[in-house]
Write a structure and sequence with these properties.
Largest sheet of chain A: 2 strands, antiparallel
GO molecular function (chain A): amine transmembrane transporter activity; carnitine transmembrane transporter activity
CATH class of the largest domain in chain A: Mainly Alpha
Strand order of the largest sheet of chain A: 1-2
Helix content of chain A: over 70%
Number of helices of chain A: 27
Strand content of chain A: under 5%
Subcellular location (chain A): Cell membrane
Number of strands of chain A: 4
CATH architecture of the largest domain in chain A: Orthogonal Bundle
Family (chain A): Belongs to the binding-protein-dependent transport system permease family.
Oligomer: heterodimer
Pfam family, one (chain A): BPD_transp_1
Strand content of chain B: 15-25%
GO biological process, one term (chain A): choline transport
CATH superfamily of the largest domain in chain A: MetI-like
């Protein structure tokens, strides 16, 4: 007994016991002391932050002057700057180039026909890697044409194609600036932290107010959302260029600019391309979500059919998004891994066989499209639709398995979700702040403790304590389930190479899908509510748990395993006594990622009717209330930051203990 | 050998840690404990080196001895905390960035331990890189690059990328690049340490071949004492940031200045270092089996002297300076001396 009861265990057990008692009896305590403030943060202590932010934004939009122009003119200028290339791409891909408006419009040139676009996609696939990739990318685009998603898909593609260069180049330059100037880096880091944890909806609110409803606002949101990872990867990959290469540049007599552009950036290109891949995938994700502020395209189709509960159309549009995500991801990944080849000899045509072919096809398409409309626009009569099929399938599932699903739902709700919810909602806010502070202090030192307590206090002071607790409970349960499913899957993948390839491949694909897509099947099967939200979050957040577990186990040094085998470990002992302990830091990193993804997804599940902070942000979005949106968004970000710091501190401690 | 000094460093210090500069101003001659108490690490301490035109000067030391930091101070890749570095009579530390770039573009070349090739450029482009940054026209710089690529024996691989080459070939590219601007002063920072022993030997031969053609002034860093005595005209032995002794290889073996140097040289194959001159003794008889040059190592003459009946004359500059006996050679070969 004495040995088992270490000071650490006493601390954790005591903390839990106190929290549990306070949570269970908070109502009674409040009655006994007649102190309502115990369970509800008093209104009159609330910070007037929401109103201040809202009125600040109003002032900004209405009357702010920056030297010679108003702020509104400034945002309009940005909008115009984005609008022009975006409109050009739309004309190129969809509408064609016209002069005049309405009936008097005259077409100068038609848009690129679907044949030309598909050939472009194939050429890019082949250029990036090989014929297999060309076939995959080509098939993906062909799918979009054949299954009638072309128009929406091209709108989405146009947004992505505009957002990606801006996000990638902007991120590169910010990253370079941070690499060069340490003070700028110090300034940038907290901003990046915040940008990556503030939920996406929260970006949308102020952007909606500054730029209005429409594709340009969506583009701004997309760029803002997709840029931070590029900045981080740029800083990281510039720093990881070997010192000697930089010295070689200096000894060759490079100026500072030459060092950057002739030595550092080209040497870091492979890692920078990984960043570009991220920008592409995040842009796609955001373009889909930004359909809420007028991006249109596939995201809008999903949103509209979710609202109509039009199962077939929703799944169709969702599949189109999946197909597009796969095509973009595989192609850009291939670009990242592409190694330089020696240039072929010959004249211009021989040196650029693909560019010439594509150009030729585009011209031929342009000319022939005039006479054969089917080459220009994919004929409606040949369009296949899977909508009815999906509707029927879903109906069949619901008719036959409704009771089963319902039973599962009720069991999980009553056995897990509701008790946990009651526990978290019962915790009095004051104790919640103290407990978070204590946990953080115990794991990460007093600095982290104070920071965590302050952040929680901010949430309470904003009057969002109750909703924050629902966020934490939903996130906690989802992360728990994702971990319970994900780690064994990861172990399986690590132990059995064949299974591993399938599982990890599946996880890679799952991770490329825009978060929106996850809502579709969940809503179809379980309708709205906490349970549906939890399922979507688990699906979305599963991948990192699996991946990190698999990588962690595979990274265990061969010698350790051999030492274990020679000590006479059984397979089970090898796993539990050698591999898992050594993989703990990786498992914790996976947990961290899982939590982050869960929080970001949780906000999006506001669409299926949760009552957490995400809902607060979503309401703010629909009411265009910037103050409310930003305060709730910051609250979500603070929860994410506290969780991130705690888990990172745990991982760091574990790594130190293992001497890694 | 022309004995004019091309590079000289006077009392050079490189300290890492907070307020290193002010610390050194207040205590110009710090004792051993002083640095640690101030939280500083002395990577280079009070280094004085003179490097003569046309010689191979080897800086030798184990990892962490400060040899890499010292060579980076000499090339001003690292800013010394204190001291002066004179290159061709002018203090390198007073040069502006612009002047420094000019010096590096025309007078210095450097080869790196991990090759430090640019991964996105071909062999030829890598070799042409120093010319590229100077703005030399493309045709001209590629022609020059072709010359140096052929010089290091990589003809036929101009279009390869670094990752397609073996370690030894990559370092040949590194050497070619450093020679492209025809530098007066050539720094080599452990150029062969990352290579397999067999390849290392081959590259050392290659290096000797190149130096016999080019006659550069060379500062060569290594942790391998055998390599040092094989290549060096003079060796500086470093330990804990301080130079222990600067001497010719033979002197280092015969008269080590400190216990550390003695410990280092104890396991060296002395026959490779000691010359006939060191073993020469006054003539004692009349019959001699032959003549050996004073500069010949015992390894190269041992076999002949040992097998002969009589001692050999030792000859220097056409004069007989003494004799070398069989027993003296055997003493060296069995390690008695």
């Amino acid at each position: 007994m004495g040995r088992w009861l270490t000071s650490g265990r006493v601390f954790w057990l005591g903390l839990f016991a106190v929290t549990w008692v306070l949570s269970q009896f908070s109502f009674q305590i409040y009655k006994a002391l007649d102190a309502r403030w115990i369970i509800r943060y008093p209104k009159k202590w609330q910070l007037p932050l929401e109103d201040s932010i809202s009125s600040f934004l109003d002032w900004l939009v209405e009357s702010a002057n920056v030297y010679f122009f108003t702020f509104r003119e400034f945002t309009r200028a940005i909008a115009a700057l984005l609008e022009a290339p975006y409109q050009f791409l739309r004309n190129l891909l969809i509408e064609g180039f016209n002069t005049g408006y309405g009936d008097s419009a005259v077409q100068l040139a038609p848009s690129l026909g679907w044949v030309a676009v598909v050939v472009c996609a194939i050429a890019i696939g082949h250029y990036a890697r090989n014929w297999a990739l060309a076939a995959l990318v080509g098939a993906c685009f062909l799918y979009l044409a054949v299954f009638g998603q072309w128009h929406s898909a091209m709108i989405t593609l146009a947004s992505v194609l505009i957002a990606v260069p801006i996000g990638a180049v902007g991120g590169l330059f910010l990253g370079i600036a941070a690499y060069r100037a340490p003070w700028f880096n110090r300034l940038l880091q907290p901003v990046l932290d915040l940008m990556q944890t503030v939920p996406v909806f929260a970006y949308l609110v102020p952007i909606l107010i500054l730029f209005g409803f429409g594709p340009v606002a969506a583009l701004v949101a997309t760029v803002v959302y997709a840029m931070p990872p590029m900045v981080r990867i740029t800083i990281l990959s510039l720093h990881s260029v070997p010192e000697e290469i930089q010295e070689a540049g200096r000894m060759a007599g490079c100026t500072k600019r030459q060092i950057m552009w002739k030595v550092l950036v080209p040497s870091a290109t492979p890692s920078l391309m990984v960043g570009v891949n991220q920008v592409i995938m995040l842009s796609l994700n955001m373009v889909i979500i930004a359909s809420m502020i007028g991006a249109g395209g596939l995201g809008f189709d999903v949103l509209a059919s979710l609202r109509r509960l039009d199962i077939g159309a929703g799944i169709e549009a969702g599949l189109a998004i999946v197909v597009m995500a796969i095509a973009l991801d595989r192609a850009s990944q291939a670009f990242a891994e592409r190694s330089q080849r020696s240039l072929p000899e010959g004249n211009l045509l021989q040196r650029h066989p693909w560019s010439s072919t594509v150009l030729l096809v585009i011209l031929a398409n342009l000319v022939l499209g005039r006479f054969i409309p089917a080459l220009q626009t994919y004929p409606d009569s040949l369009t296949l639709t899977t909508g009815p099929f999906w509707s029927d399938a879903m109906e069949w599932v619901n008719v036959n398995f409704f009771d089963t699903f319902e039973a599962i739902k009720v069991v999980v709700l009553q056995g897990l979700l509701l008790p946990v919810k009651k526990f978290f909602s019962g915790i009095p806010w004051a104790w919640g702040i103290i407990a978070t502070g204590l946990i953080s202090w115990r794991i990460g030192g007093w600095k982290l403790g104070i920071m965590a307590a302050l952040m929680m206090a901010f949430i309470a002071a904003s009057g969002l304590w109750g909703k924050a607790m629902i966020t934490i409970y939903l996130c906690g349960v989802s992360v728990l389930i994702a971990t319970v499913i994900g780690i064994p899957l990861g172990i399986w993948a690590a132990e059995k190479p064949n299974a591993g390839r399938v599982i990890l491949g599946l996880m890679d694909t799952l991770q490329t899908l825009p978060s929106f897509v996850y809502l579709i099947p969940v809503v179809m099967l379980f309708r709205v509510g906490d349970f549906s939200a939890m399922i979507a979050v688990v699906l979305y957040a599963l991948a990192p748990a699996v991946r990190y577990a698999a990588h962690g186990l595979r990274d265990v040094p061969e010698q350790m395993i051999e030492a274990g085998v020679m000590s006479g470990c059984t397979k089970r002992q090898l796993l539990w006594r050698v591999k898992l302990p050594l993989a703990t830091p990786q498992l914790l990193l996976g947990l961290n990622q899982t939590i982050m993804l869960a929080i970001s997804m949780l906000v999006i599940t506001a669409l299926v009717g949760t009552r957490d902070l995400g809902q607060e942000v979503y309401i703010a979005l629909t009411k265009a209330n910037a103050g409310q949106g930003i305060v709730a968004g910051l609250s979500v970000a603070f929860i994410a930051i506290v969780a991130d710091r705690i888990v990172n501190a745990l991982a760091e401690g574990q790594r130190r203990r293992l001497g890694l | 050998m022309n004995q004019s000094v091309i590079l000289e460093c006077r009392d050079v210090w490189k300290l890492y840690g907070p307020n290193a500069g002010t610390f050194l101003k207040n205590t110009p001659v710090p004792k051993k404990g002083d640095l640690g108490r101030a939280g500083l690490i002395g990577a280079v301490r009070a280094a004085n080196v003179q490097i003569f035109k046309g010689e191979i000067f080897v800086i030798m030391g184990l990892s962490g001895s400060g040899k890499s930091t010292l060579v980076r101070c000499l090339s001003r890749l690292v800013e010394p905390t204190a001291g002066e570095i004179h290159f061709e009579g002018e203090n390198l530390l007073n040069k502006s960035d612009k002047e420094l770039i000019q010096i590096r573009r025309s007078k210095m070349g450097m080869v790196f331990q991990q090759f430090a090739l640019l991964p996105h450029l071909t062999v030829l482009e890598n070799a042409a890189f120093p010319l590229d940054v100077q703005g030399v026209p493309k045709a001209e710089r590629l022609a020059r690059a072709q010359e140096v690529v052929e010089l290091v024996g990589l003809k036929g691989r101009e279009g390869y990328y670094p990752r397609e080459l073996s370690g030894g070939q990559q370092q040949r590219v590194g050497i070619a690049r450093s020679l492209a601007v025809e530098p007066d002063l050539w720094f080599l920072d452990e150029p062969f340490s990352a290579l397999d022993p067999l390849i290392r030997r081959e590259m050392q031969d290659e290096f000797i071949r190149l130096q016999n053609m080019l006659h550069k002034t060379i500062v060569f860093i290594t942790h391998d004492f055998d390599e040092a005595i094989r290549l060096a005209d003079r060796i500086a032995v470093m330990k804990d940031g301080a130079i222990q002794q600067v001497a010719k290889p033979e002197e280092l073996v015969l008269n080590p200045a400190t216990d550390y140097v003695a410990e280092f040289t104890r396991h060296v194959n002395r026959a490779k270092v000691i010359t006939a001159a060191a073993l020469a003794e006054p003539l004692s008889g009349d019959s001699f089996s032959g003549t050996v040059p004073a500069s010949a190592t015992i390894e190269s003459i041992g076999d002949r002297v040992e097998a002969a009946e009589h001692p050999f004359h030792v000859e220097q500059d056409g004069k007989i300076i003494g004799q070398i006996t069989r027993s003296a050679v055997i003493d060296v070969l069995v390690g008695r001396r």
